[in-house]
Structure formats: C-alpha cells, structure tokens
Amino acid sequence: MHRLAACWILLHIAASCSFFLIAHARKQPALGSDLNVTARCLPHEREALLAFKNGITNDSTNLLASWRPAQDCCRWTGIACSSQTGHVLKLDLNGAYSFYPPLYGQISPSLLSLDHLEYLDLGSNFLEGPNGSVPEFLGSMKNLRHLDLSYIPFSGTVPLLLSNLSKLEYLDLSFTSFFGRMPPQLGNLSKLQYLDLSWMWNDTYSTDISWLSHLNMLEYIDMSNVTLSTIVNWPSVVNMVPTLKHIKLMNCSLPSANRSISHLNLTELEELDLTWNYFGHPIASCWFWNVTTIKLLYLDHTNLYGPFPDDLGEMVSLQHLDFSYNRNAATLTVDLKNLCELESLYLDNSLSSGNITELVQKLPQCSSRKFYALSSVSNNMTGIFPNTIDHLTSLTTIILTNNSISGAIPPGIRNCTNLEYVHFSSNQLSGQIPLLPRSLRVFEVSMNFLSGHLPLEFGAPNFETLIISFNYITGQVPRSICESQNMAFLDLSNNIFEGELPYCSRMPSLRFLLASNNNFSGKFPPWLQGFSSLVFLDLSWNKFYGSLPSWIGDLANLRILYLSRNMFYGDIPASITDLRALQYLDLAANNMSGSIPRSLSNLVGMTLKHPSGSSDDLYSTLSFDESQDLFALVMKHQVLKYGSHGIVSVVGIDLSLNQLTGEIPDEITSLSMALNLNLSWNHLSGKIPENIGSMKSVESLDLSRNNLSGEIPRSFSDLTYISYLDLSYNNLTGMVPSGRQLDTLYTENPSMYYGNNDLCGPPLQRNCSVNNAPGHRNQQESKTDSDSAFFYYGLGSGLAVGLWVVLFALLFKKT
Ligand SMILES: *[C@@H]1O[C@H](CO)[C@@H](O)[C@H](O)[C@H]1NC(C)=O
Ligand SMILES: *[C@@H]1O[C@H](CO)[C@@H](O)[C@H](O)[C@H]1NC(C)=O
Ligand SMILES: *[C@@H]1O[C@H](CO)[C@@H](O)[C@H](O)[C@H]1NC(C)=O
Ligand SMILES: *[C@@H]1O[C@H](CO)[C@@H](O)[C@H](O)[C@H]1NC(C)=O
Ligand SMILES: *[C@@H]1O[C@H](CO)[C@@H](O)[C@H](O)[C@H]1NC(C)=O
Ligand SMILES: *[C@@H]1O[C@H](CO)[C@@H](O)[C@H](O)[C@H]1NC(C)=O
Ligand SMILES: *[C@@H]1O[C@H](CO)[C@@H](O)[C@H](O)[C@H]1NC(C)=O
Ligand SMILES: *[C@@H]1O[C@H](CO)[C@@H](O)[C@H](O)[C@H]1NC(C)=O
Ligand SMILES: *[C@@H]1O[C@H](CO)[C@@H](O)[C@H](O)[C@H]1NC(C)=O
Ligand SMILES: *[C@@H]1O[C@H](CO)[C@@H](O)[C@H](O)[C@H]1NC(C)=O
Ligand SMILES: *[C@@H]1O[C@H](CO)[C@@H](O)[C@H](O)[C@H]1NC(C)=O
Ligand SMILES: *[C@@H]1O[C@H](CO)[C@@H](O)[C@H](O)[C@H]1NC(C)=O
C-alpha cells in the first residue's frame, strides 16, 4: 500500500510541475508595469514580512536568505513593490521548483499589514501551521488579485472567507486537503479568470454549480476530483460562461456528457478534459462535437461507445485527442484529412475493430503537417500497413501493439525521417524487416511472423531498445547494429539466427541482452568483457561453446544469467561468486565439469530480501517509454518462457544436466532467498548439507540423479514452502524425514525417493531396523502464512510499477 502512496507522491510532483507551468504562463501578465524593484520598501511592511519570516520554522532551501532586516525588502527574494508608492504588491514563494517543499511553519497574520498586496503565492510549502486551518485574516486582504495556496495541506471545509476577496482574478486551491462542499459563494468572485479547485486529497463535492455562471470572466476552471455526480446539466452551466477556454473535470463522476445545449456559447473553448468519468453512452451524443475551437480533447476512461460522429472531421483546431481505455466498443471511420493542426491521436484499448490501411489514409494530409503520434494498442485492428506511411513525415511515434495487422512493414517507413518510437509487437506482420529510418530510438516488433534476413545495413545510431524476439528471422545479425552506442535493451531471442553475435564492444549502456532460442554459436561473447552495466543476460538454447571466461565475475550488475542448453564446458569459474547482485544462475544442460564453487555465500543477491521490491529495481534504469513496453513484454515473456514466477521474482540456481563432481558446498545453504535449486543429473557425491533447512524460501529442490550418500538431513522438515522435491536415484540411506509438507509432497510424487535402496521409515514401505533409526527431533511447523507474502509482494510491486507507469504516461502525454 505504501508503494501506491509513493506513486501518488510522484504523480503529485509531476502534476505540480505541469500545473505550475500552466499557472505561471498565465501569471506573468496579471500584474502591470507598476512593478519596480528599485523602489524602497516601507518600514512597517518590512516589519510585517520579517514577522512572516518568524513564522517559518524550517527554510530547508534557504529561500529567505536575502530577507535581512537591513536590506530593502523590495529586493528580497519573492517580493515586488510598486514603483510609485513602494508598497509591496507581490509575495511569491511558491515551492514547486524545489524537490522538497522549502518552507515549513505557519502564515503570520502580519501579512495583513501589506494592505496593497495584490499577488500572494505560497503554494507547495508546508505552511498549514499546527492546526491546519486556513488563516482567517486572508479573507480581509481585499486587494488580492492572485492567490495561490495549492499543495499546502490546509484542512477543514473549503473556506468561505475567500469569497470576500472580490478582486480575485486567480485562485488556486488544488492539492490542498480541504473537504466537503464547494461553496456557492465562490460565485461572488466575479472577476475570476482562473479557478482551480482540483484534487484536494479528500472528499469534495458540489450538487449545484450554477454559481459558475456568475463568473463571467472565467477562462480556466479545474474541478477535477470534485464529485459532481448529480449535475446532469453541467454542459448548460459551462455554456453560460462564454469566456471559458479550459474546462477540466477529470474524475468528477459526471453522469453524462449528452447534448443539452441549444445554442453554443463556448466559442473560445480550447481544452476539455473529461478523463475518468464513466459516461457509458454513445460518443455521437456528446455535446461538444460542434465546438470547433477545441485544441485538446481528453476522453480517455469515459466508456463512450459507438461510432465517432463526422463532426470530428470538422474540428479543425484539434491538436490532441485522447480516447484510450474505453472498453473496445467504439469505431473510428471519420475522415481526419482536414485536421491540419492534429498532432496526436491516442486510441488504445478503445476500438472494437479497425483497418490500419484506412486509418492511415484518413490521417491529416495537410502540407503543414504536425501529426507526430499515433497510438492504437489492443484495438482489434486488421489490414495491411500501407506504404503511404511515408507521407507522414512528421511522425515520431507509432504504437500499434497487440492488433491483427498483417502484411509487411512497408519499405516506405525508411522515409519517415523523424520516426523515433515504433511498437508493432503482437501483430501478424510478415516478410522481411526493411531498412529503417536512421532516426529510430525504439523498434519493437516481437511476436509477429517476420522472416528472412535482417538487411545488411540494419540499425540506427540512436537505438536504445531493439526488440525483435518471437519471429522467424534467419541469418546472421549484421554488424551494423553495433553502431548503436546507446543500446540498452537488445532482444533477439526466439528467432532462427545463426553464426556469432556481432562484436559490439561499444555499447556501454547495454543492460538487457536476450539472445535465447536461436542457433547462435561461438564462444561466450568476448566483447561483453567490462560491460558493467549488464543486468540481464540470456544466451540459453543456442550452440555457444567453450569455457566461461573468468572475467564474468566483473559484470558487477548482473542479476540474471541464463546460459542453459548450450555446449559450454570446463569449470564453473570461481569468480562467478563475485556477482553480488546475481539473482538467478542457470547453467543447466551444458557440459560443465569440476566442482561447484565454494564461496556461494557471496551471492548476496540470493540471500537478501530484495532491497526495494524487485521488478522496479530491475527496470528502474530504463526510461518511461522503455519500461512501459518492457513491462508488458516481460509479462508476456514470463508466461511464454520463464514460467509462472517470471523473471521478476525468480531467485535460484540451476546447474542440472552437467558433469559436475565433488560435494554440494555447505555455503549453498546460506542462499536463504533462493526459490529454486536444481543440481540434478550430475555426478555430485558426499552428503546433502546438514543445514539445508535454512534455505527457507525454497519451493523447488531437485538433487536427483547424483551419487549423494548418507542420510537425508532432518532439517528438510523446515522447508515449509517446498512444493517440489526430488531426491531420487542417489545412494541415500536411513530414515526419511517427516513433516506435513514432506508427507503431502510424497503423496503427490511417490517417486521422489526412488532409486535410493537404503531409505526406510514411513511413508516408505520399508521399516527401519533399530540401528538406522536415529533420534527424531520434533517438527517445527509454526510458520505463519504471512511469510509467504514475499512472492506476492513481488507481484504487487510489479503491478504498482505498472500503475505508476500508466499514470506517468497519462501525465506526460498531456503536457
Ligand atoms: C523605477 O523607479 C525609479 C525611481 O523611482 C524610476 O526612475 C524608474 O523609471 C522606474 N522604472 C520603472 C520601470 O518603472
Ligand atoms: C528542514 O527540512 C529539511 C528538508 O526537509 C530537513 O532535512 C531538516 O531536517 C529540517 N530541519 C528541521 C529543523 O526541521
Ligand atoms: C488555528 O491556529 C491559529 C493560529 O495559528 C488560530 O488563530 C486559530 O484560531 C486556530 N484555529 C482553530 C480552529 O483552532
Ligand atoms: C477528510 O475529510 C474528513 C471529513 O469528511 C475529515 O474528518 C478528515 O480529517 C479529512 N482528512 C484530511 C487528511 O484532511
Ligand atoms: C467578509 O467581509 C465582511 C465585511 O467586509 C465581513 O463582515 C465578513 O465577516 C467577511 N466574511 C468572511 C467570511 O470573512
Ligand atoms: C480524490 O477524491 C477522493 C474522494 O472522492 C479522495 O479520497 C482522494 O484523496 C482524492 N485524490 C486526490 C489526489 O485529491
Ligand atoms: C450564453 O451565455 C450568455 C451569457 O452568459 C447567457 O446569458 C445565455 O443564457 C447563454 N446561452 C445559453 C444557451 O446558455
Ligand atoms: C451541432 O451539430 C449538430 C449535428 O451533429 C447540429 O444538428 C446542430 O445544429 C449543431 N449545433 C450548433 C450549435 O452548431
Ligand atoms: C475483433 O473483430 C472481429 C471482426 O473483425 C470480431 O468478430 C471480434 O469480435 C472483434 N473482437 C473484439 C474483442 O472486439
Ligand atoms: C482494409 O482496407 C483496405 C482499403 O480499404 C481494403 O482493401 C482491405 O480489404 C481492408 N482489410 C480488411 C481486413 O478489412
Ligand atoms: C523515399 O522517398 C523518395 C523520394 O520521394 C523515393 O524516391 C523513394 O522511393 C522512397 N523510398 C521508399 C523506400 O519508399
Ligand atoms: C553407497 O554408499 C555406501 C556407503 O554409504 C557405499 O559403500 C557404496 O559403495 C555406495 N554405492 C554407490 C553405488 O555409490
């Protein structure tokens, strides 16, 4: 839960930046040219300001360092005075620019002495004082034109006293902690141009917003997160305020957006944000399709359905339309070719069907082309990608993940010379990958039917993410991909590549290299030496051979190492235990010989509870764009490849199917977070470490098909999470340990002790003779269920990351 809280804080910071930018863009002209910093301040006003400073208990960024008694207060940080009279007109200490709120304390009533003050901005500071209520004297500051208290955690009901400030033009109470009803008295503030009552962190509501119609100079209204569930006529109310340019009513539980206006007054409307209101009626019956001045239209998460009306094609001012996450019940066949201002179109998870050929043909075709982003994820789209894509020269982003688009990637894509982000994964694309534009940063086409060789000059200097896994691509990987020196994520897995990996020694940022399930050959890639940024390396299911280099221990950030199903041979380098971050080591089904390195207890990555969850760590090094895709991709890969636990939370060692000899080192039992330990099908001898029961997290333990001898340690009974155990075909002797978990496992898998001729005792048939029945320690079965939360915690944090990414994406999309 605290993870979600952290998300909100991040959201809060991001929001504060964007809101602040908007606010500031509008603030500057609010005060006239009567500001003159060369004027000298009046002594009683300086005293009032010093008293204000006294109310500050912590000035964490030294914002008020210049506020010294001997100085002219008109030159202090945040102050501006009138050139004629020297009166302080402006006090601006908004803390939004710093990461931490700079000021703590309370707002001193001394400010009342600044009786010419027009502009007061204390936003984003902890100035709510000990009791958190808004200071009453504010209601008497009659000359205020601009008041910003946003992000100050004031509580109590939304203060009525503000409705006395009849000169107010700008009022921002967003992200405070007021609650309750929005006072209709706000309608007295007839000079208001800007009103922000959004996101007060608590229940706020209004059952009648007709007071808005008195604000006949209002240009900006934001009541996001104020519950307006009973206000059916809200379009008529806003229509009474013809000056409105920005209407933001996100998450207001608005009942409907149906047409209820006879004559449209809103001739200046530029922005309409209705995100997260679940209307559930036809798109076409919305009231705003006639408003041809709208530039920004946000209708994501509104559950609108049915066809878009043709009026959309006449909204010639439209720049951004977000219609994502609307339950796949809409259709878009409107011709958009006249929307010359259109820059982005987001339709993810909203259409019931579509044809990419037609959609691309209907995109704007004006000479002044501005269209840069098309996103249509999971929309059941069919059709073939038309080569006319090369007309979209301004396109930077095209996201069509998870549709049924077929045909080849058109060669014309090469001419989209601004293209940076291409996401075509999970479609039915076929044919060869053509030459791509040099501008690309992300190219993601996994899970298609692409085939043939990669073009010889495949690559782009700015590639950061290249994901072409799960296709049928053949031949060698061209050396040209090595020119991408910023590559962070390279996924070639599950194709039919052959030959050696190209020698890309200059990819200093490479973090993920996935090449599994191909026909790659050659030695362990020598060029990876010194790649200390590498986090994830998967070369499994190929034909790599030779010994593992001892410099493998220098890959200091390596978390996941999958080398299974190759033809590696020789000793496991002892340096592998230098990989302190290592979480999974898989060398299964190679020809490794020698013994298991002793210093396994150095693998602290397998002993600690993962410092801060796990998945976020693994991906935190990636940009938002990358992590958004990777998250989806990784989820899919997990299921396809890494099993239900996925790579996110897997911890363990798999050395099965090799030629390892010697004993199992006792140190292995210190890997207390390992979920999986598989040493089967080797030639290990000696005893099973006595202390094996301290591998508390183990869920799967396979030591079968070795030459292990001696008794089965009693501590096996401590492995309370174990769900798979195989000790078969060894030379184990004596009494089998008991315990509820072990008995259950035996019932499910009676072969788990097979091939050990000298085992005895229940549940086996064979009775123990007196001399092989050692004293039976009492079982300790007091583990509580809460401990098993580790795995779910991992999953949960993964979800939180996903949510966080989505929230961020929403925000960035809009700014
Ligand atoms: C500022 O005030 C000084 C002296 O009061 C005056 O000379 C100057 O012109 C003023 N500047 C502006 C921009 O008003
Ligand atoms: C002041 O705030 C800073 C930043 O939040 C904090 O590190 C510091 O401990 C605070 N000092 C006092 C005296 O509260
Ligand atoms: C809150 O504290 C201020 C002084 O900091 C005081 O004037 C006001 O009366 C207090 N309000 C309540 C409700 O206690
Ligand atoms: C939220 O509002 C309730 C009253 O509806 C109030 O009791 C509570 O203190 C408020 N919470 C905060 C954090 O302000
Ligand atoms: C508003 O101002 C009037 C007179 O100026 C005063 O009587 C009243 O108390 C004020 N109301 C609030 C809520 O401050
Ligand atoms: C939004 O409103 C809900 C109550 O309806 C409240 O619990 C939540 O804190 C508010 N969120 C923000 C960010 O203000
Ligand atoms: C248009 O706005 C004017 C001015 O606020 C108002 O009087 C009129 O009723 C509005 N028209 C409609 C149809 O709401
Ligand atoms: C809005 O468009 C509809 C058709 O969708 C039309 O009937 C109506 O007259 C238009 N209203 C205005 C005010 O332009
Ligand atoms: C996808 O489109 C096909 C027809 O093209 C339709 O039969 C199917 O129901 C659609 N799937 C969804 C989820 O809308
Ligand atoms: C998509 O549209 C094109 C052009 O209208 C048409 O030729 C093609 O048959 C359509 N494809 C599908 C699958 O409907
Ligand atoms: C790119 O555009 C040029 C000039 O319009 C054209 O000659 C060329 O064939 C195009 N390339 C592709 C791959 O379509
Ligand atoms: C099994 O272990 C016993 C001693 O415990 C030893 O005498 C015997 O040779 C071992 N058998 C094999 C096949 O290793």
Automatic annotation (TrEMBL):
Gene3D superfamilies: Ribonuclease Inhibitor. This is Leucine-rich repeat-containing N-terminal plant-type domain-containing protein. It is found in: Cell membrane. Keywords: Brassinosteroid signaling pathway, Cell membrane, Glycoprotein, Leucine-rich repeat, Membrane, Receptor, Repeat, Signal, Transmembrane, Transmembrane helix. Pfam families: LRR_1 (PF00560), LRR_8 (PF13855), LRRNT_2 (PF08263). Residues 43-82 form the Leucine-rich repeat-containing N-terminal plant-type domain. Belongs to the RLP family. SUPFAM superfamilies: L domain-like (SSF52058), RNI-like (SSF52047). One of its GO terms (biological process) is anatomical structure morphogenesis. It is a single-pass type I membrane protein. GO terms for cellular component: plasma membrane. Its main location: membrane.
